[in-house]
Structure formats: structure tokens, C-alpha cells
From TrEMBL:
GO terms for molecular function: alpha-mannosidase activity; carbohydrate binding; metal ion binding. One of its GO terms (biological process) is oligosaccharide catabolic process. This is alpha-mannosidase. The gene is MAN2C1. Gene3D superfamilies: Glycoside hydrolase 38, N terminal domain, Glycoside hydrolase family 38, central domain, Golgi alpha-mannosidase II, domain 4. Residues 517-596 form the Glycoside hydrolase family 38 central domain. PANTHER family: ALPHA-MANNOSIDASE 2C1. It catalyses: Hydrolysis of terminal, non-reducing alpha-D-mannose residues in alpha-D-mannosides. The keyword Repeat does not apply.
């Protein structure tokens, strides 16, 4: 035993120990230098380079060429396969032998045709254990393959992580050798590093930190790296320290292995498939070696990829799921963005996810897991509860730039009052390493200390995958119960949340959305992806509705359930939190656009098929089938397709479709070969009629022009545009009420400098508001477009900058309560932000924004830091600023970024960030927004149906056969507060004849309503969002009506069993 230390110098003692374990200094004589013993090169190394991501069987049959350590390979996104022939020296019998492999890129070791371990320098995995102890009779020669992807854990950014990828990057293999591994040295290193962590973490005011430091110092004294026989004494000193316990009151940290894998981000979707394999196969190995280690894994899509590409690995994951070590969490298809997906999309995330987890792993997830997403909709608690989930975990709000979120464990109450138990790991990360510093932070930063005594601790390399390492597991095991530190358990989400639920009596409640005060640019970045999302949500809605009607009406029709599931999964995949948000590289954006194109083209085919089925079997004229896919009557002007690709205007008027009175017969409907057209009065419905326009429609709205300005008037609203296209007046005709603020102009385009601090595609900063520059047009650019008839319009051009221009058609239709702005922009900017503003003659301290299945209010002032931190917010199809008796609503067809400050409604249109996609948003864009002044409340004025109408145009589908002879409505709802959102075939549908209906209360009121249907319904029963029948049994169905009762913003789902078809 060494002499007691004679000197007392904190720093020299601490640094002495640091040098003893340093991988950089004194490795010739320190302990770290002894981690590996003898080594020898691999017997033979050869390689094969390919731009493809080949399956193993195909890859190993290629022509491998001799290779050596030091060789370069690449470029970015290619793959280099290495064949590694190795022979372990006989002299190493009895030793632990590793393959030490260091290369750039991400490696995966294959042995006997199966993946066995990931190898990445960045993920601290640089050796593969060939044998724990080489036996005398063990085979000493074998062949391995290492598949190296030419990208790092976090992609291949040129110069910085989020810069656009460098396509020319080259990669190198710097080590490939066999070596003897000294397990006893490794254990001492783990202990010494923990002791150093305790000494530093607890600091010089704490007596336990001195005990840790002097224990470590003593270990260095007794330990001679060159003499392994000295190790046990040192080891005993450490064990004595870590074995010293403390009291029952200690905080418990639930450590769970995790590996956040962004489904696509700085790398393409296809690389994620391999990231999953590399990460999880390593996890399998850890689970085998550490039976107490538990790994939480989210995102059904990733597991589905592994199921189809690596069936052997999938089977292992299922096996460990049975043992409770591999725990599927989250319940969703991907970790989707928490703001932008529609309510129905969010339901489908859970429906597809939970069904997958149940099918493949035998049970559904009981916690919603979204650690890395940019804000959380206030409607999520209700959706979660109805999908069998009462628990929620994230940590992203720790990224708030302005306000520090006040809780780590709390009840989160949603829009309708539903509550879930939410936990934010107090260490503010999902990628912990198992250090003492992180363990101490988890307790110190916990804002609910004293209220609950449990915290989550998610460890493992994340974002680009990688996951936990054996060292992390060993550190955490060592800290299970040591005086001076919180208790650490290798635990599971179930154990954590059960413990939290046991102490929930004192927890606080947070009501409403969890708004992330950062990344507000993601509501706008990559406009085409946003547009694709909105459009495809509509297409799938319409396809499901029409297919359901076809199913009900036609005995021959086969509901396209499998194809619809595929299309939904594509849409859900694009809702991943770095895709729909626009924060991905160009390669991903291109793939996402292909996904949308698939949905569009298949969707249109499915719509035609459903239309054909609806038109079959009944006598009637041929022509067009006009379908209203919304649950209320619509009186609208619509463009009707004509041969040769042209359009003419028609109008659905109640139950009739009218030709445009402004057109001569040769352009009008009369010239159609089949003059009888179908129109849609109430949804979902179809009717046949052609008629003349009533006289009073024929005369308006005629645009008038005085002094270069244009006035459009449809008898409901009167719009006045100045000679540059700005809105100088918007009057509600009946009351004469002006909606534009006095002395101000609306439809004012404004340009901002948009240079964030770091996260280019993600962030728009508060200070951008200080750079506002109105875009001024030239007088005389305004022209009358369509002159009178059922539609009036004006048109103008606007030069935004020397490089970017805009053209806009301002359209007012007969009978329409809003004026539309069809906008085309050619956008070529760098770090600029384009918005359009409407100063309203309205005063209110709060504005209303549509969210999933409802709406919420946010302040229009900057009183407190919580108010001004929401200088840029998100909305779905509409926002509204109302005072008592009057308001102005701004609708849109594909935008999400918005704000209302004071009386100015502002819609965010286009950004121009350059990282991680240098090309994002450059080029041509088309979008529509609309302005609707109204009296009364927005609810009573019909802003919500107006926004639906803008987003769900009436469908005019060619009817291949005789269309139904009479107008026909499938469903109607008696209350304007209740929206029938979705009609689809039920997931489980005996003989395929059960429909699922989803309705929600949209006004924020308690409402009773009658749902009426003309379909032959045999039985109706409520169900949850996963379509599980409500135990209360069937609803009373009389005269094809049933009564439903809603609480504010409540979502209800209903299963309708259709009567069997007559023969
Ligand atoms: Zn992420």
C-alpha cells in the first residue's frame, strides 16, 4: 500500500489522475496505453466500391480488389465494402480479442451473412469483439465484411454540420488490425473516469468530491500499468467507494438506452434504413451482454424498414421485445412534426404506428415519444388519449430561446381538457453519455424536485443514430447507488411513468400548446413541401370519401384499402420533423416531392375509379360528376374541364349547376357534348342538373376602373385595389363596414432580412422584424382580368427585387364571402423573408388561429416575454382577428407561418435560407390566400367552412357512364359547429362494409347535433381513434338519423355498419 498523500493540492491531484487515463498524453506509460496489448494486421483486406446501397448477398459477389490501411474511398453517398480475412495468433489463447477498425464513414460488420455490429468513430465504436476468451480449439481464421457508408453520423456537410453536403468528400480507412483487449484495464478506466467526474461535478465545497479525488489518487498510487497483478488492489479501492450507500430519500434516475435516428435529414431516407440496422444491431449485442439494459425505440416506419431489409435483425428485436429489453415507444409512424400535420394526419400517425407495433411486437405503445420536435399542438393530448396513450415525453422545449419552461414533470391539458402526464428529461437531452456531470444535472435542473423523485435519462448517440455503447452502460451500472449521487437504475419507460404516476398528486398543469420558442422558420421553409402536404391531405380525404360512397352504392366496388395505406404512409413519412419542416438537405426534399407525386397520381386514379363506380348502374345522362366532399351545401363558381384542356366556369347553386352567364354559349356549358352536368349540393353528394342562370346573377360582379384602381363587388363584399394592386378598401356591403384600417393598405407585400444565428432553415429571429421593407409596385400595372359574369378579377405584376417578381390575380366570385389572391412568385433570393400584410380596422388583444380539429388564441401584443417570443406562429387554413361584432379572417391554401401584431394580420409566404439545402425555395411558386371580412363572430360568420371550401374545391370528375340522375347527399350534420372531417372504410371491416366517420366540434362550444345519412346503415357505434368500439354499445338510429353530443373541440369517431348489398 502506498504512503498516504502528503500534499494537498486539488488541481495537481486531479490532473494527475486525468493524465493517468488520458488517450492523448503519456500513453506510453499511463493506464490508457495498456487498454490493448499485442496486435497484428488482418491477414488480407480487399474492397469493392459502389454508388448503390446493395444488399449483402449481392455485394459480396462483386469483384473485390486488394486494399490496405490508408486507402481512400468515396465520394459522398457511395459505399465501400471491405472483405476482412483474419487469423488470430495461436499465442492469444485465453485472451479477449478484438478487431480494431477505424475509418471515416459509418461501418457495419457482417459475419456469416448477418449484420452484427456498427462501427463508427463518431459513435465511439471502433472495435468488434471477436471472442471474449479465445479457446484452444476455437477456429482462429474467419472472414468478415465491413460495409462502410460514405457519410458521417450527421451526413456530409461541407465545412459545418448543417451546410449543404459536400458531394466530393473522400473517406479513409486508418486502422484494421487484431488486438488483445485488457478487460481489467478497461474496468479501472471506467472507475477512474467516474471518480474524476464526481470530484469535478460535486466541486470543492463537497466532502464527497474529495473522497472521490483521493480514492482516485490512491488508485493511481497502487496501480502500475505494466503490472496487471497490481490492478485488483486499485479495483478494490474503487469498489469500496462506489459501494458506500446513502439514504432512501435519494432521487432515482431512470436510465434508458435510446438512439434518436432522424428518418431523413442531412442524409437521404435510404441511408436511414442502414442507420437503423447499424444502430440496432449494436443494441442487440448490448442487450445480449447486459440483461438489465433496456432500450426504447420509436418510429414504426424505421422498424418496418428493418423488417423488410434485415429480417434476421427484426426477429432478434422481436425476441428482445418479448424479454422486455427492447421497448417500442411513441405509437406513431414517424416522429412527426408537432405543428403542421392536420388533425386527421396526426390520427393516422398513431393509427398506422399503433397497429404496426401491435402486429409486430404484440402490444401497443403506452407513451408518446417526440423528443426532438419543434413544438406540440394543443390538440395532441386528446389525440393521444383516444389512441390509448396517457404519457408523453419530450425535451425539445429546453431549446426555448426566450423563456425557460417551468416544469419537467406535469400534466399537459389540451384544447378539449384532455390531460396526459408529461415528462421532460431534466438533463435536457436524449443523447446522454452516462457521465457524472449529466447525472448531477438531471437532478439539479429538475424543476419538480420535491414533487416527484424520478427522472428520465436517455443515453446513446442520437440524431444520426449510433446509440448506446458498453462504456455508457458500465458507467450507469456503477452509479446504481453511491453516496453523494442520485440513484441510477437501468430502467424502462413503463417503470419511469409508473413511478411518476405514483407521485402525481402535487404536479402542476400546463394548459394549451407547448410552443417552441425557436425554429419558427420551419412553418415556412420549403414551400413546395408544405404545399404537397396540404394538397395530399386533401387528396387522401377526397379519395377516402368517394371510395366510401362507392362502396356503399356499388356491390362491385372494391375499397382500395391496401393502396390507401401505402399512400397514407408516404404522406406520414414526409411529415417527419425534418422533412415537412423544410429543414432537410436537397436530396431529401427531392425524394419527398416524389412521394407527393406518387400520392397525386395514384390519388387521381383512385378518384376516377370511385367516380366510375358511382356512375355505374343507374340510368342518367353522361357528363361530369360534380362532387362536394364537404359536409355542407355550397354555392360556388367552379371551373369545368372542357375538351382540349380548357375550362369554363359553372356554378353550383343549391342543387343546380349553372353555366356561367358571362360566357357565350360556345364557351359555356351548352357547348359541352353532354349538357347535363352533375353538381353537389350537400356533402358528400352528387346531383345532375343543368340550368340557366337567374337574371340577378348575370350582372355582377363587374369590375370598375377609375384612376387606375379597380373595384370588385359581388353584393357581399366590395374590394378596392389601388393601381399597384394593394387593397385600399374592403367593405362588407350589407353593413357598409370597412375592414381595412384607416389610412392603411392591405395586400402589402413586405420583405425582411432573414439571417438567423445558426439554424438557417429552422430559425427566423425576433430581430428580422426590425428590417421590414414594404415592396412597392408601379402605378398602372393593375388590369382587369375576368370581366363580370359569375367571376370578376383584376391582375397585376410586382417586381419584388431585381431578381424576384410576383404576379397576382385578385378574384371575386358571385356568392362568395371572401376575395381570393391567386399568387405566382418567381423567387431568387438569399436570406430574405416575404410576407403579406393586412392592417385591419379591428382591435383585439388576441387573434385566433386554426390548429388540428379546432383553434386557439394567441396575443397580438408583446407585453411579456412569453407574448413576444411568439412573434412568428403557425396556423392551418385560417386565422382571424375579431372584435365584438366584426372581424377579418385570412385564409390560405398551403401556408402555415403567420402572425398578428396589433391590428396587422400577416401571412408568411417564402424564405430563402441556404443551409442545409442551398437551393431551397428558389424558383416558381403558386399559392392562394383569401380575405374574408365578417360581421359577428368568425364562428357564426362561417369562416371555418369558407376555409374548408378554399382548400377543398368542388370536384368535377369525368363520368365515364351514366351519372346518378338526381342530386344525392350521403351525410349531413345539423349543427354548424360540428364538422364531418373524415369518411373512410373502417380498418377492420367485416365483408368490407363498415365505414368510419370522424367528426369534431369546431366552434369551441358544447353542441348537440344530428347526423343524417342516406346510406343503408344497419348499426352505428362510437369508437376511439384506433377504431376500437366503445363498450357502451350501438347508438340509437332512427329515420336514418342519430344524435351526437360534443364538448368544445371534441373529436368523435363512429363506425357505421352498412346493410349487406341486395344480392
Ligand atoms: Zn430529430
Amino acid at each position: 500500500m502506498a504512503a498516504a498523500p502528503a500534499l494537498k493540492h486539488w488541481r495537481t491531484t486531479l490532473e494527475r489522475v486525468e493524465k493517468f487515463v488520458s488517450p492523448l498524453y503519456f500513453t506510453d506509460c499511463n493506464l490508457r496505453g495498456r487498454l490493448f496489448g499485442d496486435s497484428c494486421p488482418v491477414a488480407e483486406l480487399s474492397s469493392f466500391l459502389t454508388p448503390e446501397r446493395l444488399p449483402y448477398q449481392e455485394a459480396v459477389q462483386q469483384d473485390f480488389r486488394p486494399a490496405q490501411v490508408g486507402d481512400s474511398f468515396g465520394p459522398t453517398w457511395w459505399t465501400c465494402w471491405f472483405r476482412v480475412e483474419l487469423t488470430i495468433p495461436e499465442a492469444w489463447v485465453g485472451q479477449e480479442v478484438h478487431l480494431r477498425w477505424e475509418s471515416d464513414g459509418e461501418g457495419l460488420v457482417w459475419r456469416d451473412g448477418e449484420p452484427v455490429q456498427g462501427l463508427t468513430k463518431e459513435g465511439e465504436k471502433t472495435s468488434y469483439i471477436l471472442t471474449d476468451k479465445l479457446g484452444e480449439k476455437d477456429p482462429r481464421s474467419l472472414t468478415l465484411y465491413v460495409e462502410v457508408a460514405c457519410n458521417g453520423l450527421l451526413g456530409a456537410g461541407k465545412g459545418s454540420m448543417i451546410a449543404a453536403p459536400d458531394p466530393e468528400k473522400m473517406f479513409q480507412v486508418s486502422r484494421a488490425e487484431l488486438a488483445v483487449f485488457h478487460r481489467d484495464v478497461y474496468k479501472l478506466l471506467v472507475d477512474l473516469e467516474l471518480l474524476l467526474g464526481i470530484a469535478k461535478g460535486l466541486g470543492e465545497d463537497n466532502q464527497r468530491s474529495f473522497q472521490a479525488l483521493y480514492t482516485a489518487n490512491q488508485m493511481v498510487n497502487v496501480c502500475d500499468p505494466a503490472q496487471p497483478e497490481t490492478f485488483p488492489v486499485a479495483q478494490a479501492l474503487a469498489s469500496k467507494f462506489f459501494g458506500q450507500r446513502w439514504g432512501e430519500s435519494q432521487h432515482t434516475i431512470h436510465a434508458m438506452g435510446h438512439c434518436h435516428i432522424d428518418t431523413a435529414w442531412l442524409w437521404p431516407f435510404k441511408e436511414t434504413v442502414r442507420k437503423c440496422a447499424r444502430s440496432w444491431v449494436t443494441v442487440v449485442q448490448l442487450m445480449e451482454r447486459n440483461p438489465e439494459f433496456i432500450f426504447a425505440c420509436s418510429q414504426a416506419q424505421q422498424l418496418e424498414w428493418v423488417r423488410s431489409h434485415y429480417p434476421g435483425l427484426h426477429a432478434r428485436l422481436q425476441e428482445f421485445a418479448c424479454r422486455g429489453q427492447f421497448v417500442p415507444v411513441g405509437g406513431t409512424w414517424v416522429e412527426m412534426d408537432g405543428n403542421l400535420p392536420s388533425g386527421e394526419s396526426m390520427v393516422r400517425q398513431f393509427l398506422q404506428g399503433q397497429n404496426f407495433f401491435r402486429q409486430e411486437f404484440g402490444k401497443m405503445c403506452s407513451e408518446f415519444w417526440l423528443p426532438d420536435t419543434f413544438g406540440y399542438s394543443a390538440q395532441l393530448p386528446q389525440i393521444m388519449r383516444s389512441c390509448g396513450i396517457k404519457r408523453f415525453l419530450t425535451q425539445k422545449l429546453s431549446w426555448n430561446l426566450v423563456n425557460s419552461f417551468p416544469h419537467h414533470t406535469f400534466f399537459w391539458e389540451g384544447l378539449d381538457g384532455s390531460q396526459v402526464l408529461a415528462h421532460f428529461p431534466p438533463g435536457d437531452s436524449y443523447g446522454m453519455q452516462g457521465s457524472v456531470e449529466e447525472v448531477l444535472k438531471t437532478v439539479a435542473k429538475n424543476r419538480d424536485k420535491g414533487r416527484t423523485n424520478h427522472s428520465a435519462f436517455l443515453f446513446g448517440f442520437g440524431d444520426g443514430g449510433g446509440g448506446p455503447t458498453q462504456t455508457m452502460v458500465d458507467r450507469l451500472k456503477r452509479l446504481c447507488n453511491t453516496d453523494g449521487l442520485p440513484r441510477v437504475q437501468l430502467s424502462s419507460p413503463e417503470r419511469l411513468f409508473s413511478a411518476l404516476e405514483g407521485h402525481s398528486g402535487q404536479l402542476c398543469t400546463w394548459v394549451g400548446e407547448l410552443f417552441l420558442e425557436l425554429h419558427n422558420g420551419t412553418y415556412t421553409t420549403h414551400a413546395q413541401i408544405k404545399k404537397g402536404n396540404r394538397e395530399c391531405e386533401r387528396i387522401l380525404h377526397d379519395v377516402e370519401l368517394l371510395s366510401s360512397l362507392a362502396l356503399a352504392r356499388s356491390t362491385q366496388f372494391l375499397y382500395p384499402a391496401a393502396l390507401l395505406q401505402d399512400l397514407w404512409r408516404l404522406l406520414l413519412l414526409n411529415q417527419f420533423h425534418d422533412v415537412v419542416t423544410g429543414s432537410c438537405i436537397q436530396l431529401v426534399a427531392e425524394e419527398a416531392m416524389c412521394h407527393y407525386e406518387d400520392i397525386r397520381s395514384h390519388g387521381n386514379t383512385l378518384l376516377s375509379a370511385a367516380a366510375a363506380a358511382l356512375c355505374a348502374g343507374e340510368p342518367g345522362p353522361e357528363g361530369l360528376l360534380i362532387v362536394n366532399t364537404l359536409p355542407w351545401k355550397r354555392t360556388e363558381v367552379l371551373a369545368l374541364p372542357r375538351p382540349g384542356g380548357a375550362h369554363c366556369l359553372g356554378m353550383s347553386w343549391g342543387e343546380e349547376l349553372l353555366p356561367s352567364p358571362g360566357h357565350r354559349p360556345r364557351h359555356g356549358l351548352c357547348s359541352c357534348p353532354h349538357p347535363h352536368l352533375t353538381a353537389a349540393p350537400a356533402a358528400p353528394a352528387a346531383c345532375v342538373r343543368s340550368a340557366r342562370a337567374p337574371a340577378d346573377l348575370a350582372s355582377r360582379p363587374p369590375p370598375t376602373k377609375t384612376d387606375g384602381s379597380v373595384t370588385l363587388d359581388n353584393g357581399i363584399i366590395r374590394v378596392r385595389l389601388d393601381p399597384t394592386g394593394r387593397l385600399t378598401s374592403l367593405v362588407l356591403v350589407a353593413s357598409g363596414r370597412e375592414a381595412i384600417a384607416e389610412g392603411a393598405v392591405g395586400n402589402q407585400f413586405v420583405l425582411f432580412d432573414d439571417v438567423p444565428l445558426y439554424w438557417d432553415a429552422w430559425d427566423v429571429m425576433d430581430y428580422h422584424l426590425e428590417t421590414r421593407k414594404p415592396v412597392l409596385g408601379q402605378a398602372g400595372t393593375l388590369a382587369v382580368g375576368t370581366e363580370g359574369g359569375v367571376r370578376g378579377s383584376a391582375w397585376f405584376l410586382l417586381q419584388i427585387s431585381p431578381n424576384s417578381r410576383l404576379s397576382q390575380e385578385v378574384v371575386l366570385d358571385v356568392g362568395c364571402p371572401y376575395v381570393r389572391f391567386h399568387t405566382e412568385v418567381h423567387w431568387h433570393e438569399a436570406h430574405k423573408f416575404l410576407k403579406v400584410e393586412f392592417p385591419a380596422r379591428v382591435r383585439s388583444p388576441q387573434a385566433t388561429y386554426e390548429v388540428q380539429f379546432g383553434h386557439l388564441q394567441r396575443p397580438t401584443h408583446y407585453n411579456t416575454s412569453w407574448d413576444w417570443a411568439r412573434f412568428e406562429v403557425w396556423a392551418h387554413r385560417w386565422m382571424d382577428l375579431s372584435e365584438h361584432g366584426f372581424g377579418l379572417a385570412l385564409l390560405n391554401d398551403c401556408k402555415y407561418g403567420a402572425s398578428v401584431r396589433g391590428n396587422v394580420l400577416s401571412l408568411s409566404l417564402l424564405r430563402a435560407p441556404k443551409s442545409p439545402d442551398a437551393t431551397v425555395d428558389m424558383g416558381r411558386h403558386e399559392f392562394t390566400y383569401a380575405l374574408m371580412p365578417h360581421k359577428g363572430s368568425f364562428q357564426d360568420a362561417g369562416v371555418i367552412p369558407a376555409a374548408y371550401s378554399l382548400n377543398f374545391p368542388l370536384l368535377a370528375l369525368p363520368a365515364p357512364g351514366p351519372a346518378p340522375a338526381a342530386a344525392w347527399s350521403a351525410f349531413s350534420v345539423s349543427s354548424p359547429a360540428v364538422v364531418l372531417e373524415t369518411v373512410k372504410q373502417a380498418e377492420t371491416s367485416p365483408q368490407g362494409r363498415t365505414l368510419l366517420l370522424r367528426l369534431y366540434e369546431a366552434h369551441g362550444s358544447h353542441s348537440d347535433c344530428w347526423l343524417h345519412t342516406s346510406l343503408p346503415v344497419q348499426e352505428a357505434v362510437l369508437c376511439d381513434l384506433l377504431e376500437r368500439r366503445d363498450p357502451t354499445g350501438p347508438l340509437l338510429l332512427r329515420d336514418n338519423r342519430l344524435k351526437l353530443t360534443f364538448a368544445p373541440f371534441q373529436v368523435q369517431s363512429l363506425l357505421l355498419l352498412l346493410q349487406p348489398p341486395p344480392n
